[in-house]
Structure formats: structure tokens, C-alpha cells
Design goal:
Layout lengths: L2 H21 L18 H12 L5 E7 L7 H7 L10 H9 L2 H4 L1 E6 L1 H10 L5 E3 L15 E3 L2 H8 L3 H14 L11 H4 L4 E4 L5 E12 L5 H22 L5 E5 L3 H4 L5 H23 L4 H24 L6 H23 L1
Antiparallel strand pairs: 1-6, 1-7, 2-6, 3-4, 5-6
Length: 345
């Protein structure tokens, strides 16, 4: 190859290399779910209808892991969302996030079981227990069989605080089905989301609980990934708000398990390519008769090829995912033989 051609080749290669490095951060991550099926698939049509007609996204739960005394006034005020609660309470923070749904992907404010429990306990027709054994009685039962146990009445009869009342009658709230007479019954909305144990005195201790809201409609991989990312940010803020050692609040939604990998896909890709290029360097060093210069030249050239491929991914709108990372690693290995032959020449 003539010297001017060599210079021109190096200049062009260097310019394209710089351009590729500049556009690499702009490569989108994710995998279009519609690419994995034929266009006449019923699942493909299902995804299309979801994009066009779906009005709300998947439910998201912020799960509280760890034992918390929600009936302590200070802690309760950090979690509830009604009058008298903290301005930065858990429910309030989720509501604020829902007002910026274009950023947070939260469509509606959270349902607070603490607020509904309070309203339920203050309603005369909701809380009831059987006269015979004081166990839970549905509020639809006749008063001849059951006795009312709303808070004001129990406070007057037993002289207990609201915290003591909550500990005693939480199971009643979670067993009560809502209807037009008592709309705040917690069985339908909260029974499956609160785990508790009762001691010998009939007082309850909450082991785990959650707060539920809804995502906005998520259509693309970017939407799913951003929804997961912001839900985790909210969970971290909620954990800091409670500020209780050993207690963590983390988000969960049905699609998170499929998109968690993309939060660290760049780190995984760089690690995999680093291992691959290190292997290229080691193998070429041995194959070229322990010629360090040739091994470095080959490794550097393979690295530039990988960078150019990343640049082409941006140009052709190919997203970064597990499949493309595997292809990049395979390409870096397959170029060893060609590069070694050119160096030997």
C-alpha cells in the first residue's frame, strides 16, 4: 500500500473512530418486545392494541420490608396522607410524583391503608364484633348478633388511645368487605398486602406492608426502564423518610424482573468486552511468539473495530441489550485470526 494511501486510511479511520466514540453514549438500551414475534402473531396484535387503547399502566407496589410500629404517632404521620400527616410523608411523596407523570411514570396517587383505616374506625356502621366471642363480625350483620366497635364508642367504654385501638382492631378492618354502607372496608384493597401477627393480648404487629399506585402507560423499552428507575428513586426517598434502621422500602411491578438488567447493561457490556479484549491480548501475545508489540497492535485494532460497531449500532438504531452484547463479544474474538495474519505479513 502506497504511503499516501496509508496516511489517508489512518486519517479516515481516526476521524470515524472519534465520531463513533461521541455517539456511543446516545445508543438506546432495551429490546423491542415486538421484534421477537412474527407480525401475524396474536401477541403482536395484543401489544399494538395496548399501545392504542390502554388507559393506565401496571400497578406498582412500594413494599416496606421490616417490622414497623405504624401505630406509633410519629411513624404513622410519616406514612399517612390525610390532615395532620407530615408534608413529606410516604403517601404525599407518591402523590407529588404522580403530578409529574411525564417524568416519574406514576399515573395516580397511592392508596393509603392508614387513612382508610382511620376513616373506617370513625364510621359507626363499619366496625363490629360478635357479642358471644368478640371475634370479627361483618358490618352487614344485624345488631342483635353483633356489637358496634367504632373508635369513639370503644374509647368511651374502655378508655383506650387510638394507637391501642388500631392494634386491637386492625384484623377487623382487613376482614371487612367494602360496600355502599361502609366504603372503607380494607379486605378488598389491603388484606393481601399487609402481613401481621397477633400476640396473646390480641394486639397486632405488622411484619410487612405495601402502598399501591399505578404507572402510566408504558409502550417502549425506554418507558419501562425509566419507570423502573424512577420507582427505585422514589423507594430510596421513602426509605430515607422513615429513617428506621433495618427497614427498607423497595418498588415492585410485574415487568420489573424483565428490565432490571438494563439498569446495569452498560457496566455489563464494558466488563464483558474488557474480559474479551484481555483474552485477545493474551492469546495473540502467545501466538505471535511473545511479541508484545504485535499483540498490542492487534488488540488496539480489535478495540477500534468494536468501537466502530457501536457507532454503527447508533446509526442503524440498534439498541444495546444482552443479544447485542454477546454479538460484540463474539466479533471481538472472531477478528483475532484476521488481525494476526495481517501483522505477520
Amino acid at each position: 500500500m502506497a504511503f499516501p494511501v496509508r496516511c489517508l486510511t489512518i486519517i479516515c479511520f481516526t476521524i470515524t473512530l472519534i465520531l463513533c466514540v461521541l455517539v456511543i453514549p446516545s445508543i438506546e438500551i432495551g429490546l423491542d418486545q415486538e421484534l421477537s414475534m412474527p407480525e401475524d402473531s396474536h401477541v403482536f396484535k395484543y401489544f399494538e392494541f395496548m399501545k392504542q387503547l390502554l388507559g393506565v399502566g401496571a400497578p406498582v407496589y412500594w413494599v416496606t420490608k421490616g417490622s414497623i410500629d405504624y401505630f406509633d404517632p410519629d411513624i404513622r404521620n410519616k406514612a399517612c396522607g390525610s390532615v395532620g400527616c407530615n408534608k413529606d410523608s410516604i403517601t404525599t411523596q407518591i402523590y407529588i410524583a404522580s403530578t409529574q407523570s411525564n417524568i416519574t411514570y406514576i399515573a395516580a396517587q397511592a392508596n393509603s391503608w392508614l387513612d382508610d383505616f382511620k376513616d373506617w374506625s370513625d364510621t359507626e356502621k363499619c366496625c363490629k364484633y360478635f357479642k358471644s366471642n368478640t371475634s370479627f363480625c361483618p358490618h352487614t350483620m344485624m345488631s342483635t348478633v353483633c356489637e358496634s366497635c367504632y373508635y369513639s364508642l370503644i374509647q368511651e367504654q374502655e378508655n383506650i388511645t387510638r394507637d391501642q385501638y388500631y392494634k386491637k382492631y386492625l384484623p377487623h378492618f382487613l376482614n371487612d368487605n367494602p360496600d355502599t354502607t361502609c366504603a372503607k372496608g380494607g379486605h378488598a384493597s389491603y388484606a393481601g398486602g399487609i402481613t401481621y401477627i397477633s400476640d396473646d393480648n390480641g394486639e397486632t404487629l405488622i411484619i410487612a406492608s405495601n402502598v399501591m399506585a399505578y404507572h402510566t402507560v408504558t409502550k417502549t423499552s425506554k418507558d419501562f426502564i425509566e419507570a423502573l428507575k424512577y420507582a427505585r428513586n422514589i423507594g430510596k426517598n421513602l426509605t430515607d423518610t422513615l429513617n428506621i434502621p433495618g427497614v427498607e422500602i423497595f418498588p415492585y411491578s410485574v415487568f420489573y424482573v424483565f428490565y432490571e438488567q438494563y439498569l446495569t447493561i452498560w457496566q455489563s457490556a464494558l466488563e464483558s468486552l474488557s474480559y474479551s479484549l484481555s483474552l485477545v491480548l493474551g492469546i495473540t501475545f502467545i501466538v505471535t511468539g511473545f511479541d508484545a508489540f504485535s499483540a498490542l497492535i492487534i488488540t488496539f485494532t480489535v478495540t477500534m473495530i468494536v468501537v466502530h460497531l457501536l457507532g454503527m449500532m447508533w446509526l442503524w438504531n440498534i439498541t444495546l441489550n444482552a443479544v447485542s452484547v454477546v454479538n460484540l463479544v463474539m466479533i471481538s474474538q472472531n477478528t483475532i485470526q484476521t488481525m494476526a495474519q495481517h501483522v505477520e505479513r
